[in-house]
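Look at one such:
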Amino acid sequence: MKTERNSSFELLRLLCIFGITVMHAFANIDTGGSWLNTEAHILFNSVFNTGVTCFILISGYFGIHFKLEKLVRMDCMVIFFTLAGTILLGDFGIKSLIKSCIPVISRRYWFITCYFALCILAPFLNQIPERLERAKFRSLLLVLLLLFSVIPTLTTYDIMQDAGKGLVHFVMVYLIGRYLARYQNRQHSGKILAFGFFCCILAIFLLDSGLTFLHRGEIYSTFARDCSLLIILAAVLLLLLFGTIKFTSPLVNRIASNVLAVTVLDSVLMNLLNRRFSLNAHSHSIFLTCLVLGYALIVVIIAIVSNEIRKFTIGRIEPWLCDFIVKFWNQIQALTLRLTDRIAAAFLQEKR
């Protein structure tokens, strides 16, 4: 089983967050008046919507080991940037400020909320490959894929009605990552993996382009949804492809540690940048793709630099805060156990 993560997977995470930022930038642009930009929009959706699935596959491949301290640190980062973003955007409403203090619970960012839940469930999910035989584990994955991916891909209707942007999808993909880590020992040709990935993306692009054409230019991403079987297959091939690349770079690893901060900051930064420079004003330009790529790169760089500054400033109190919260949580657990034991003892005594 793989235990050490080389920098190729960190590079993949960086490429994924850049691609997701590109998609978010395109989402704010009305490309309906330009056939070229409409097709570029569909293509970027086809390629980069593998990003979230890749993130969870990587987590499953290496396994999430639950640590309360890590979740507290993550929550501190999310709360800090959410509050900062709310204030910078001039939203001083009581409701907005309260929700900014509990962004995970209020599902301010669906990915962060689902990832927190996945981290909490991980100790139990990790036991599945340990306790199930390979054949039964494979059968479980096939059933999950049939219900939550194959049916939505073939019928365009998904059972969860969340297009794969939910905890069920995270659990399924995480378990696929665990399966690959435990049983995928064979070396694959990088060229074959790259060709397979290209075929998946081409199929998604052609299918969604066809739907868009049939609906007179309205952008369709039906086959680029997170729950799409083609997206999951493309993400698996991409994971295996980057697994064939071996290199170590402390710089890449350091930069990649800021990926979650980018997911929190990208919408705020885009909102602020749009006040000075609106991409939608260039929706008909033949240079729109270049503008979007540069725009997304600027957003990612600002977010990464912002988080590095946070680490060296207010982030220095996080170890103390984590220690306090962990001790408090342990005391609550101990108190709960004592109360439960006393209630159980009293109940048994009454029955006697």
User: Anything to note?
Assistant: The chain has two domains: 7-312, 317-352. Residues 7-312 form one domain.
